[in-house]
Amino acid sequence: MTTLKVSDLHVSVADEETKATKEILKGVNLTMNTGETHAIMGPNGTGKSTLSETIMGNPKYIVTKGDITLDGESLLDKTVDERARAGLFLAMQYPAEIKGITNSEFMRAAVNATRPADKPIPIRTFLKQLDHNLDVLNMSADMAERYLNEGFSGGEKKRNEILQLMTIKPTFAILDEIDSGLDIDALQVVSKGVNEMMSPDFGVLMITHYQRLLNYIHPDQVHVMMGGRIVKTGDDSLAKELERTGYAGLRAELNLDVDLVDEDVPAGNGGR
Amino acid sequence: MPKAAVLKKDPALLESSKFASEPQWLTDLRQRAWSKIDDLEMPIFAKINYHSWPLLNLTADPGINMSIPQTVVNESAAYQFASVGQIVAKAKLSEKLIKQGVILCDLATAIKEHGDLVKQFLFSKAIHFDEDRLTAANAALVNGGAFLYVPDDVEIDEPINLLQFQDSRQTTNFVNHTLIVAGENSRFKVLQRLATVGETENPAHVMVEIVAAAGSYVKFSALDSLAAQTHSYINRRGYLDRDARIDWTVGLFNDGNTVADFDSDLVGVGSHTEMQTVAISTDRQTQGIDTQVTNYGAHSEGNILQRGILLGASALVFNGIGKIIKGAHGSKAQQENRVLMLSPKARGDADPILLIDENDVIAGHAASVGRINQDQLYYLMSRGLTKEVAQRLVARGFLGVVLSDIPMAEVREQMIAMIERKLVNGQRTE
Q1: Predicted confidence (pLDDT) at residue B232 exceeds the cutoff of 70
Q2: Whole-Å CA distances, A219 to A147, A195, A250, B106, B361
Q3: Is residue B412 part of a domain?
Q4: Could you tell me which residue ranges the SUF system FeS cluster assembly SufBD N-terminal domain spans (chain B) (predicted)?
Q5: pLDDT tens digits for A247-256?
């Protein structure tokens, strides 16, 4: 079993123009083990994406206090590629488009990044796995030969993130709003891909606005984030409760002093 | 005028360039060009200073090595034409193409066997011998090259591949001239692969003329990888008649200093060119690339795309020139010049130059000199690729946009390998 632990994490970002820093995360605590599925829900602007990018090691986010550890070893001084090779994966909300590199050569390079230089994955083995994964995700074979995310629709990009997840097989995957912009059919396909990954050696952290994703990927734990902290943790009944009461209701219940971007809108509507 | 830009006019040099028993018209052409060399200026390319390079350091006593290296023999398998310096290693067209009247041979043979055809097009449509000192030097001293003629209405699916080596196994002159004539409504692809054998320091003068008759469509691609010790001048020019089209895709991967002049003259109504060039400069190398489209014909269209990467302390200048002549109504000239800097010590330039003398035209440009996109780098690294590998992938992707336009798989692989090698070497010295 592997454990990813976030303790008392404080994170700031610098405004690109004014250079003024602003604290987004104000003491997040979270412990996940492999074999578990966690979901983080919360209103817009509460720091959910900041948390996922910080765990992955995006240099734009500055950790001012606290720690992130993998089996007790701090990740903070590791670069994003080192964290990826250590077993972390982030399915991004807005993956970059890169012309001139095909999807399949990129994924092969990524798979080989965790293997010894003199032992790359045999091409046939790689292609066989790729074909299988494309099939699970209802993706046509030519998607693998297209340039990386170049000209992909929003839905195709999300599928492509899951395709990479299935191909790279990390220890922990963070799915940052993998459901946004997906219709029900696409959501089912993407969920199928994630569910196929489930094993005692794999853990998932889903970030979402929507309770509906949790109908397809069942979480063991649901965390609600507000104002840069996790304010409540429960099982998947918590997601359903939020659906009824909205974040404003939870705020009142917990007597929190945080601003909500969108007041009085139930979370079931995606917080909009 | 720097001494390097002056040709030492030894009559033995002119004599040594002549083909065996060449016709009088060619000897006359040489003589006229020879006598003008001193009066003509070196060509001027904005921001490209190459005047101190030993481009005119030609020898009056060139050595000729008749043997063909085994590597050339091996590599020539996929080509219809192969040469090492002045020696022809291969010239072989399929029976089918020969029956259709297609001609492919070295320039000396063409002048002997197809003299009227060559005379009609050599230095007469695309490049003129008296444009500047370098065109005159090429006309006077041409000592090798290829000739490809595709008759009217002939369409060829398979690309015609030319492999031309500069022979630097000894001190000699490489003054190469390839003439490509596309008959009316012909369609074909040509690939020119240019490289060096040997370690001696010799300049390279390479010219390609493509004369595209009405309605023809030529897809020309080239991969250049001349040696580090070679200073090169490369001039590729298209002359396009009515509704003709030439698509150029050039990978400039020379290891030595290079000045390149790529032009298309859109003479005919409705003619069209796409000119793509990608280049990498490394170490202390300087490369200046001047790509020009001149719209003479109404409704003609010319688009330029240039992309380059700089490493080490190198310099790379891309000039993109869109020139629209009065009378070219409804013509279009677009260009995009992009330079990616992978080293703080390198110097890159992307200069769009629009010279427009007509009103109802569409012309535009985009230019950028930038560093690697950090979001792309982060994305690749988030999948476990090291920074170096991610950088190389982004850089390769940046240049790789032209790969699909190169018709030979072997040459595509060579280009990828060259990009990789140059990037790895460049990263090592950072």
Answers
A1: yes
A2: 34, 11, 20, 73, 61
A3: no
A4: 77-161
A5: 888 888 888 8
Could B399 and A100 be called an inter-chain contact, meaning their C-beta atoms sit closer than 8 Å? yes
| Chains A, B: CB pairs < 8 Å | 76
Tell me, yes or no, if B378 comes closer than 8 A to chain A by beta carbon: yes
CATH number at residue A193: 3.40.50.300
Whether the per-residue pLDDT at A263 is higher than 80: the answer is no
Task: Return the sign of the alpha-carbon dihedral for residues A108, A111, A115, A117.
Answer: positive
B421 within some domain? no
pLDDT, tens digit, 9 for 90 and up, residues A42-85: 988 899 999 999 999 999 999 999 999 999 999 999 999 999 99
If pLDDT is split at 50, 70 and 90, which confidence band does B430 have?
low
The single-letter DSSP state of residue B417 is H
β-bridge pairing B232-240 and B204-212:
parallel
The answer to whether B260 and B252 have CB atoms below 8 angstroms apart is yes
Which has more confidence, A183 or B165? B165
User: CA angle, corner A118, sides to A115 and A121, nearest 5?
Assistant: 50
Please check whether residue B137 is in contact with residue B56, taking contact to mean a CB–CB distance below 8 angstroms: yes
Say how many C-beta atoms besides its own lie within 10 A of residue B371's C-beta.
11
Report the gap between the CA of B279 and the closest CA in chain A (Å): 15
Confirm whether B409 is domain-assigned.
no
Q: Which residues of B373-409 are buried (b: 16+ CB within 10 A; e: fewer)?
A: eebbbbbbbbbbbeeebbbbbbbbbbbbbbbebbbbe
What is the C-alpha to C-alpha distance for residues B85 and B66, in angstroms, rounded to an integer? 9
- Residue A46 included in any domain: yes
Count of domains for chain B = 1
Residue A115 lies in a domain: no
Q: What is the pLDDT of residues B74-130, one digit of tens each?
A: 999 999 999 999 999 999 999 999 999 999 999 999 999 999 999 999 999 999 999
Instruction: Search chain A and give the residue with CA nearest B389.
Output: A109
Looking at the complex, report in whole angstroms how far the Cα of residue A223 sits from the nearest Cα belonging to chain B.
25
Is B384 within 8 Å of A85 when comparing Cβ atoms? yes
Print the domain residue range for B180: 3-371
- Looking at residue A252, its pLDDT comes to 86
Residue A251 lies in a domain: yes
The answer to whether residue A70 sits within a structural domain is yes
pTM over 0.90: no
Question: Contact A96/B378, CB-based, under 8 Å?
Answer: yes
- Over residues A219-249, the pLDDT tens digits come to 999 999 999 999 999 998 998 888 888 888 8
Range of the structural domain that residue A245 is part of: 3-97+170-269
B219 in a domain, yes or no?
yes
Instruction: Give the integer Cα–Cα distance in Å for B140 and B56.
Output: 13
Look at residue B356 and tell me whether its pLDDT is greater than 80.
yes
